[in-house]
Amino acid sequence: MSSLTLLYNEIAQCEKCGLSKTRTMVVPGEGPEDADVLFIGEAPGWHEDKQGRPFVGPAGKFLDELLAAAGFKRTDVYIGNVIKCRPPNNRDPLPPEISACKQWLDRQIEIISPRMIVTLGRYSMARYFPGKSISRIHGTAVKRDGIIYFAMYHPAAALHQFSLRKAIEEDMRKIPRLLEDTATGRISDLVREDRER
Ligand code: SF4
């Protein structure tokens, strides 16, 4: 059994926060164990909670389109969330829930060891770019300990606000170039080395 499958079995039993009482299914994430790119969204919604899979509702369909436009198949990349169980009525995740769920995402990242982590929306952005505003940093990347961190709007936000659609499409198209540069060891002009930490 793969390391990720073993981890999913553990996550399925998790009762570390109150969302375990209201979920239908845990949504651990999906994608190859050796994915180069790991996308991190916010939390499962209604469709995801029913199917146990991330990004399968309208925002997920849009994410699939964005990936295809950048030359990726959904099965090329890993897709997960900050929170693995749906908050009731799609409310925002609460700080204690994010903190209780952090260990699962940490372990996923450790197993997958991606070359690039893409944050979708403000909750995953806050993990890697604390105190920053998404409207200012979307489409920019930092390199930290050999990993490129890249911030994007959440596809659901772009679905509801047409003005963000162009921005999210343009940002997604930067990813192949960033990946190519990490492969060659070149630092793209889209990336700054992070010396703040
Ligand atoms: S949201 Fe995370 S911490 Fe809370 S019960 Fe689900 S898996 Fe566990």
Keywords:
6 strands; alpha/beta
Rg of Cα set: 16 Å
The largest β sheet comes out as:
6 strands, mixed
Task: Compute the average pLDDT.
Answer: 93
Q: Determine the number of helices (DSSP H or I, runs of at least 4 residues).
A: 9
Taking the alpha carbons of the first and last residues, their distance comes to 37 Å
Q: Would you list the SSEs in sequence order as H and E?
A: HHEHHEHEHHEEHHE
Overall body shape: globular
Strand percentage, roughly? 5-15%
Helix proportion: 40-55%
Structural class: alpha/beta
- Order of strands, widest sheet: 2-1-3-5-4-6
- Beta-strand segment tally: 6
Unique bound compounds: iron/sulfur cluster
The unreliable regions are none
List the helices and strands and how they pair.
Layout: H1 3-12, H2 19-22, E1 37-41, H3 46-51, H4 58-69, E2 78-81, H5 95-112, E3 116-120, H6 122-128, H7 134-137, E4 141-144, E5 147-152, H8 155-160, H9 162-184, E6 191-193
Parallel strand pairs: 1-2, 1-3, 3-5, 4-6
Antiparallel strand pairs: 4-5
Helix pairs in contact: 1-5
This protein binds iron/sulfur cluster.
